[in-house]
């Protein structure tokens, strides 16, 4: 979900400061900044997809979320939230009745709700805030409470987060993983607190979403990397400052090129470098119209006027072609067609990118991110990337004097080819295991939500479950 920049009158900032004296004492350097989200921008409207030949809505387009489980309060109350690199705040308790469908509503209730009145460690503040996303919005009240993650020793004391008082079109709470204190927010968010309370050595976390075609959940590691989830070295793309006239820090990087590789022949699309946000909370990617139109031409896409996206033949997803995204000279993530094409309903396949005008925020969502391994490194101002592969598990903490780029992937090129060719069955078997013997080689196939493989020294690893919520 992309959090939209909005005009803000400093109300929340002012009252949060008032509430802060006692509440923020857990923060070691206790410095409060200011909220800076001053400009409005146009909403990226996500249409509901309709059948081409009639006007009956088939389903709504918001399909896949990556969820983790949080235990909040004393005694613990369990809720599931979507991990989201496109926004920066944590909140819970969506209004399920506005989810959009009976199924989504049911899903929403199953994600759980948190009641601060039932927790002896909660503090309810009078501070409220409003967050609009690309789709959906929430009005929330700030609460402080302790948070743990299942099956781990992780414990955050007195995290500040939102409890929704009203929301629309959101069927799950959101764990925003973007910049917090002193950058976008005047309080430490979840990523900040992990660092400030010495649970991680660095404000960095890594994400392998995992393939959409398997039950294998993705892996999110706060303060660490899993070297058996990628091949080659991690290469760094500098995070850009605010773009599009916003004053919001986001995970912007330069997308320098896109190419289509068809039967081994690669042809680059004609384009200028474009800043894009890496957004794990978005199913599809949003790119300049001209590039998307060229992709559609190559993939025999047909413009669907009603839904404003391209429908492509479903057998495209079976081809071994790739859409290749470059971030500077030495980083290219090759996205297999079966990841890039979204089978939105039986026999209806959608191109994984939607065209936008230059006024909109361009972003790479899950349709691209599933093909890569990404370390979001706030401390070094870079996203470190590599081609996703899966050859087991070797989770390592990034030391306080080290960098994510000190680690290289344990998987072979072949492991990555297997994924690109849609052969995800080989899993841990073919791993080269070059020298790392802490390898538990456990397939991370715990489909349980928030299945947590533990604390490997200042790093927390969770297997995020994939929830499909198609209508
Ligand atoms: C899709 O969502 C919109 C609101 O986002 C809602 O008005 C519409 O009824 C939904 N469609 C279906 C088929 O549920
Ligand atoms: C918690 O208690 C307060 C005061 O008793 C009440 O106003 C509020 O509605 C309660 N909140 C919930 C979620 O029940
Ligand atoms: C939980 O919150 C209370 C404050 O209400 C605090 O004293 C305590 O240390 C926190 N942490 C744990 C692990 O209970
Ligand atoms: C974190 O570690 C630092 C340095 O070791 C220490 O000074 C600080 O008190 C610790 N903070 C917490 C919240 O434990
Ligand atoms: C991003 O691209 C722009 C335009 O080509 C360039 O001026 C800028 O230096 C690039 N920034 C980084 C960090 O690569």
Automatic annotation (TrEMBL):
S-S pairs: 314-349
Family label: Belongs to the peptidase A1 family.
Entry annotation: catalytic residues: 84, 279
Gene source species: Zalerion maritima
InterPro entries: Aspartic_peptidase_A1, Aspartic_peptidase_AS, PEPTIDASE_A1, Peptidase_aspartic_dom_sf
Occurrences of domain Peptidase A1 (ranges): 66-386
Gene Ontology BP, a term: proteolysis
Keywords from the UniProt entry: Aspartyl protease, Disulfide bond, Hydrolase, Protease, Signal
Region annotated Disordered, chain positions: 417-450
Cleaved signal peptide residues: 1-18
Protein name: Acid protease
Example of a GO MF term: aspartic-type endopeptidase activity
């Amino acid at each position: 979900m992309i959090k939209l920049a909005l005009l803000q009158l400093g109300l929340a900032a002012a009252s949060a400061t008032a509430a802060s004296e006692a509440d923020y004492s857990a923060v070691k350097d206790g410095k409060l900044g200011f909220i800076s989200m001053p400009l409005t921008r146009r909403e990226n409207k996500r249409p509901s997809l309709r059948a081409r030949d009639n006007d009956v809505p088939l389903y709504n387009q918001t399909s896949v979320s990556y969820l983790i489980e949080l235990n909040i309060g004393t005694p613990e109350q369990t809720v599931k939230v979507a991990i989201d690199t496109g926004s920066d705040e944590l909140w819970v308790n969506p209004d399920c009745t506005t989810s959009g469908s009976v199924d989504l509503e049911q899903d929403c209730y199953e994600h759980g709700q948190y009641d601060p009145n039932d927790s002896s460690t909660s503090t309810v503040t009078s501070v409220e805030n409003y967050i609009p996303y690309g789709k959906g919005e929430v009005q929330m009240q700030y609460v402080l409470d302790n948070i743990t993650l299942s099956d781990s020793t992780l414990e955050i004391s007195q995290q500040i987060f939102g409890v929704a008082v009203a929301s629309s079109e959101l069927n799950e709470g959101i764990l925003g993983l973007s910049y917090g204190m002193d950058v976008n927010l005047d309080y430490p968010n979840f990523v900040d607190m992990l660092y400030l309370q010495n649970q991680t050595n660095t404000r960095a976390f890594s994400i392998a979403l995992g393939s959409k075609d398997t039950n294998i959940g993705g892996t999110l590691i706060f303060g660490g990397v899993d070297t058996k989830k990628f091949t080659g070295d991690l290469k760094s793309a500098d995070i850009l400052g605010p773009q599009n006239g916003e004053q919001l820090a986001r995970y912007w990087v330069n997308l320098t090129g896109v190419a289509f590789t068809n039967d081994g022949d690669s042809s680059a699309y004609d384009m200028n470098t474009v800043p894009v946000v890496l957004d794990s909370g978005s199913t599809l990617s949003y790119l300049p119209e001209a590039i998307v139109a060229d992709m559609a031409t190559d993939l025999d896409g047909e413009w669907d006027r009603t839904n404003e996206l391209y429908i492509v033949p479903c057998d495209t997803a079976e081809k071994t072609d790739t859409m290749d995204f470059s971030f500077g000279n030495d980083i290219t993530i090759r996205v297999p067609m079966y990841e890039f094409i979204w089978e939105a309903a039986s026999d209806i396949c959608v191109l994984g990118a939607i065209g936008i005008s230059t006024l909109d925020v361009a972003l790479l969502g899950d349709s691209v991110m599933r093909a890569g391994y990404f370390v979001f490194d706030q401390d070094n101002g870079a996203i470190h990337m590599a081609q996703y592969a899966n050859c087991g598990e070797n989770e390592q903490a990034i030391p306080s004097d080290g960098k994510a780029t000190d680690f290289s992937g344990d998987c072979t090129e072949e492991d990555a080819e297997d994924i690109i060719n849609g052969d995800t069955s080989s899993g841990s078997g073919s791993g080269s295991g070059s020298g790392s013997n802490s390898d538990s080689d456990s397939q991370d196939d715990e489909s349980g939500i928030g299945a947590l493989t533990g604390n490997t020294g200042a790093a927390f690893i969770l297997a995020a479950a994939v929830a499909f919520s198609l209508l």
